[in-house]
Every structure is written in structure tokens, then in C-alpha cells.
Amino acid sequence: MDTKTGRQPSTFAGKVKALLMRAWRERWTDIQWGVQLKKVLASTGGDPKDLPEILVHQALVGPNPNTLILSFLKYTVLSQVVPPSAAFNLITSFDDLSKPFCTLGLIDLAEAFACNLSFTCSLDSSLTLCKCLQNTLHWLMLCIHQSLQMIKDGHTPLEILAIIDSASVAAQKIGDNTTVQALLYVAMSEDTDKFHDFEQTKVNVQGTLSQLQSDVVPSQTRLKVASALKSLLKVQDLALPTQSVLEVSHLAICPTINGLVSLEAILNPTSDVQPFVEQLCVTEKLLKLNRSYLYCELFRACFMGLVDSADSQEELKWAAFTYLKLPQVLLKFNQQAPGQDFGKELEQGFDLLLNSVPLLDLTDVRLNCEALLQLIHECMKYDLLSQPQIERLLTRRRNESAKPAKNSQPTTQPSASLILRAESTVTSILKTLDADCSKNQDALMGVLCQMLSGKSFELILAAAAATGELQSFATKLIKINEFAKQTQGEAGKAAQTRVLLFDISFLMLCHITQLHGIEIFSQMISMSPEYADSFFIQWAQRCLPEDGRYKCVDNYSGTDQAKVDLLLSQLTRGDEIKQSSTKWHEICLNAPFAIQEVLFAWEHGALGSDNVKVILERSQSRMCSIPVVMSAWLCSYMNTVGDDAREKPLQMLQRLQVKISSPDPEIYYGERSHLMGIILRKMVNDILPPHIKDTSMQFIPPNAVPSAVMEKCLKGVMAKGWIDLRSVHTLEQLLNLCGSDWFCDRAILHMLNSSRLEDLTQALGLLFAVFHLDLEHITLSLLLHTVPKLLQSADKQQLLTDPRGYILAKACVLCIVAAQTARSVAGKATMSHTRRGYSKRSRKEMELESLDEPDSRPVKRMKTMEPQLTLDSEGFNLDFLTAKDDGEASPIIDTKDPLNKALANLLRLMNAIAHSTTISPRTSFIVAFIEESIKCGGQYSQFIHQFIPPQMLSQIMKSIPGVFSNQQIVHICNLAVPTGRKVAAKCVCQNSKIRPE
Description:
mainly alpha, Serine Threonine Protein Phosphatase 5, Tetratricopeptide repeat, 65% helix, disordered N terminus, transcription regulation, nucleus, transcription, Mediator of RNA polymerase II transcription subunit 24
């Protein structure tokens, strides 16, 4: 008894058999059969899935198949009376080659089903069709293999050759169907074991056929088998062709590489080489750059930077990057791909550079040296080029150079030569500074004072930063400063030497911190925790201003009033400080409170301006570190008072910057005061009124509107096609001043102002590099602020029309991939590559984190016609990504990661737009975003696609049929999980109606 229908199982089968007998006698057509069959199904309530078994059983009773019954079965399946899977399963279960004509009949039937099936209206699920088609092709290959095996065993009836021919033709026709190819690609991931068996069978067919002599198997049959195997290989060819997310090869200069090099050379002089190399590798993959072209652009960017920075404060940075750091970058490339012909690619890169004769000539003239010759010699030190390659390159350079001959010797030494000499000097200095401070004070003193003369200290710092020795240098200065801060009761010259050691090391450390940030000491502290309690690090963290940000005045604590009074007495009366009994760090700690007393006394009339001037001069007369700590306190104090109370502290700051003469030339006062002046100017510049600021350090004019400054800067950059020195600093200060949301908004809107694809492409190449000023936070602003605002604003739809929307999609993909890669690299290595000034968590990150709190209430928003998917309305619940079948594991996603949250939120917004009833430029942007993410390939595209809601792809294809090819579909969906395979199979079947064969 059938529990579903309540009828005897034989009732339905009997009526079908009786219907077959009548159809046979009356020679019914397929339509007549269909009409009568439906009457039987309606009257008996039988299960249509049983029909194929009944029909096949009746058709294959004898040695020859009943063609009429097979035609009825064909009509029944193709008219959607029964699910195709039932017929496919019956066909593939037949393995009796002793009935060759029955096998031929089933092969024809399988071909008819697979080639004429309606994938969009099938009774079976799309995933079931995938498996059935794979099983069918596997069965056809088994038929061919078993037939070939019979021929090999000596059986050569014509029917066997007919089976081979028929199965080969059927397999070829089925395999040539692009929908079938895509479904087979999905099936390959559905059951890897079955697909492996399928692949093995194809190998067996090919191997067995090759073992048979040509006179046994006709050439036509061999060609048919070969054609079938070739068609089935197309399943493996669904891998996406190599495409660039951004095409820049037509531009005279690669703006992205040029910009990245500029930011690295100017803003990140102390960073490790490896993160920069990873950055270049990601850009190379996204832009699909040729390796020799990449090398050429690196060289070109360096020489352009050397020309641009000539006679400026940044000249040494560019020289250090070009001649000390760039060879290390090239060495890393060589180590990462040892199998490639690195030397040949590098030589080709130099060959491309040699085409830029005017640039090379101008660089030689500006630097007063053979710039290219110097770089090639540095590459030779790392064995990156062979001697014949070097000679050929230099010969070509000499022959093609058009620069004028030198009439006289240069008056100044070239920066390239200076920085190369400084590299070896750094090594010897570090060895000297390793000496025992208590035994070699005079030697240490000599080395430190020698560094203060002229540009020596700047050269040493530039070379140490480029070679990765700056942290070691700073560590040794900390050690010297710690030794010299306390007295051992020395007198005379020994006491004076200790004073100078403390003062010089303090000034050097201040200068290093101002140039490279307090982060320079972070790794040192992690490796040697004892340095965390050192005087200078403690003082710098609490008191030293950085990048225009002044520390809280309350950080000045731990005062000793008795020592403050003693210091005040010495300053007011002009008494000498007893060097033999003074702890110099205590002087520095108490000096701010002494100057506070002086300021308050002046403000209350207890001291006159002349008295204050004398006190300040006395504080400068011996120790240059005392004016520095006093100025740091005055700057912090001025940030806590109104404009009226700033006049006298400002006058004190200006007075401390005035140079005074020292009566004792042996104490190197001139050199120390020069360095002190540099430190003070940088410290107090941001606190000064606009009319007396140091304009060389200000790239945003006083009282200028930041948006106007940025507009002018970006126009200049876009017009030139590369980022100059001044633009780098201007953009950095604008980012510091206005934040990443504002910065990203203005940059993107400026880019979208153009309507020509060439201009948009160049603008995006430049902005992608500019965004590396603070890639992580700007990417978050792009995903959370700028793009959602454009998508949700009705009056900005024109900015999403192509090619603008197309370029904006590229910008999103480029930033997402670069930010995700940078974060993963930072997780493996140190954070030394993080731009200083941006290491703190942003407001955006803290907002994202606060939304994870269960008590946080979403902000109420006005209802509109469109779904408003925003940060707070969705709360970043990533459950929508975990839609899965029973037993399927949830995807592993770091829900705390801000980039993950931002990307998930943006794709949810896109999903809402895709489900709206209107097709608009927003929809086109979504399609472009997905298409560009596919071009990234591999792990990059998988990172983005994991956040696509399961129903989004199908909905887009309903709205815009055929917008994605089958090849794209199988790379959008995650075929590693059942849900992804279901979505892929469904979308491929949807596509079959729009993209017919």
C-alpha cells in the first residue's frame, strides 16, 4: 500500500502499461500520448517520478529498443511532466553493453535531454541538474571507455564503434553548451570524489585510445573522441582571464606608483622595506603591471622626486630613499621570486628609464652628479645586475645623454654622494656609541659634537632611517642620556662632559622624535621594557608636542618645590648651577614650574620685562635642554588660556628662540643652540599668530578655506599627472586638519567632476596613491560615508552615471583590497609602517565598536521610500551572511574588524537597492562594483564576495537579465559552501534563457 496515495502500487503502473499497448497498436503521436497520460495521472494520482522507470523497462525488453516508447519518454521529460533527474538516473544506471542498440538508444535520449532541456523551468533544483549532467557525461565517457576496452580485447563489432561515435558526438554537443559547462563547474565543487572519478575516466579513455592501433579504430572515430574530450576540457577554462582593475599603461607616468613612492620617501622614511614591497605587489596585481615597467616607474618616481626636492629640506630624504632604500626594495623583489629572471627584468626596467633622457639629464644637472650611475652601482652591491648588463646600460646612457658639459667643479657636494658616505658613517658611529659610557666619555663627546656640525646630523638621521638603523641609534642615545642624567660627584671637566652628554643626547632625541614620532621607540620598549621608564621617553610621552598636537598641561607633575625655588634663585641671581651635584633630569622636570612662577610674577607685576629677559637668557646660557622643556610647557599652557592671556607666554617663547653668544667656545654651544633653535621653531610654530609663522612649515595658508586649498591642490596634481613635494605635505596637513570623512568626500567629488574616461582613470590612479596617506581610515570613510551618501542622495545620481560610477566602483575595490592586504601584512609584522599621527583609533572605528554593545540604541531616522541601511539602523548584525543549510558551518568572519563591518554594511545597502523597483545609475554602480571585484581574482575577490547577501546576485539578474556571464557567476559565488553552489547553479540556469547557445 502506498502511504501517500492510498492506492496499490500496481494500479498506476498497470494503467500506464495498458496505455502503452494502446499507443503501440494505434501508433499515437507524442501529443496524443501526452494527453492520454495526463488523464491517467489525474485519475490514479500516481507519482510521475515512476514513469521513466516504467517506460524504460518496457522500451528495453528486447535486444533492440522500442523507439516509439523512447519517443514517448522523451516527450514526457521535455514537456516537464516528470523531473529530468529521474530519467537521467535511469539512463546512467544502464551498463549492459551486451545490448548495444539499447545503449545507442539511451545515448540519443541523453543527448536529447541535455541539449533541449529548459534549465529555467525544470522540475528539479538547479543543483540537482548539475549533478545529473555530470553523471550523464561520466556515463557517456564510461560507454566510450568500455567499448574501447572491448576493442582492445579483440571484440570489433560495428555496434561497438557506433556506440563510441554516438557517445562522443553526444558528449561533445553537451559539453559545448556554455550553461552545461558552468553547471559542471559547480558540480565539480559539489562532489569532488565523483568529479575525480569523472576526470579519471576521461584519462582512461584517452590512454586506452592511444594504445589501440590506427587500423583498429577508424580515424573519424578517433577525431570524434578527441573532440569530445576537448569540449569537456572547457569546464577547466572557466578561470577568469587576467584583467586589470585600473588600466594605466596608456599614461605617460604611472600615477599610482609615482604617488606611492613619494609618500614612502617623504612621509615614511623610517618604515621597514617589507610593507612597502607588499604594497607595490598588490598594486602590481590590481593594475596588472609588467614587472620591468614597475621597476622603471620606481626609478622614474625617484628621479622626479630628486629633481623636485633639490635645494629643499626633503632632498636628503629623497636621496636616502633612492640610493639606500630602493636597492633594498629591489632585493626583496628578487628574494620573493627567485625562479624568475630578475636580472633581465631589472635591466629592461633600466632600459625603459633610459628613454627618459631629459629627466635623467635634468637630474644630473640638479644633483651635480651622475645620478643613474650612482643607482646602478648601488644595485651592483647587492648583485642585482651582472657586469655586462651594467656596462651596456652605462654605455647607452653616455651615448644618448644630451646634457651640457661641466665647466667647473660643483661648489657643493652632491646629496647622493653625501648620503652614501653617511651610510658607512652610521655604522662606525653605532660602534662608537656602543662603548662603555663610564669609561669613554670624551670619545662619545667627540662623536656627538662632530655630528652637530653643519648638515651632519641630518645626513646621519636620513641614512640611519633608510637603512633601518634609526631605532638602534635612538636606543643608544637613550642609554647615554640615562647615564648622564645623574652625577657621580665628578668635578671639573668630567662634570662638564657629563652635562654636555646629557644636553646633546636630549636635543638629538627631541629632534628625532619631532621628525619621526614617539612611535620610533615603541618596538624598542617592547624588546627592552626597561627603557620604558627612561627619563626622555617618559617626558616625551607626557610633554613633547607632536605634529601640532600639544600635551595636557596637567601632565607636568612630580614637582619638588624646594628644587624649583633653588632653580629660580639661580636664574634670578645668575648663580652657577653646581655641575658636580646636580641631577640634570630633575632640572628638566622642575624647569617648567620655575618658568611658570616667572610668568605668573610677570603677569602680576612682580617682575618687569627686563627681568624676565635676563632670566630667559640665563636659562639658555649653559643648557639648551632647559629652554626646550620650558617651551614645551609654555605651548601646553597657551592651549589652555584665552587669547588675552597668550601675549606674555608668546613673548617668552619668542625670547627663548633668540640666539645668545656663549662665553666658553669649548662647550660647543653654537652647535647645540642651532639644534635647539630647530626644535623650538618646529614646536612653537603652530601656536604662533599667522603673521609670524614659519611659512616653510605651513602648506595651508592662514585663514584659507580648507576646501579651496584642497581643490587647488588636486587640480594642480591632476594637471601634472604626478604628486609633487608640496602637494604631499599639503594633502597630509589637510587630512590631519579635517579628518578622513571630509578628505575622502572632497577627493572623490573632485575625481567625479570629470566626464572623460581618460581623465577619470588618471585621477583615480593618483587618488589611490593619495589615499595611502591613511589607507585604512580613508577606506572606512569611503565605504561608510562617501559611497552610501552618493547612493542614498537623489540629487547626486548624476555622479553615478557611467563612466563616473564605473570609476567609483574601481576606487572602492582598489581601496578595499589594498586596505585588507595592508592589515593582514601588519598582522604578520610590526606596525612600523603605520603613518605616525594615524596610529590611534579613529572615531569611525569607535562608532563601529560601540554598535556591538547590546545596550546601544539605534538613532531614530525619518522614514523614506527607500530602505535606509546605515550603521546604526542595522547594528552590523552579520547573521544575514550565515544563511545556510542544516549541517552547513557558518562562514568564519571577524565581526570585530571595522573593514569587515563597513563592507558588509555597504553590500547590505546595495542589496536593498537591488531589490527596489527602479533601475537607476545606482544599479549600474552595483553591477560595476561586483564586476571589478571579480577582476581582482583569488583571495582578493573572495574577501569581497563573502559579504554579498545570498539573494542579491539572483535579484540583480532578475532586474537586468544577462548582466553577468556564467563565467562571472561561478567566480562571484563561494562554491566551497552548499549555499554558494545553490546560488551559482540557480543564476546559471537563469542566464540560460538570456544567453542561449
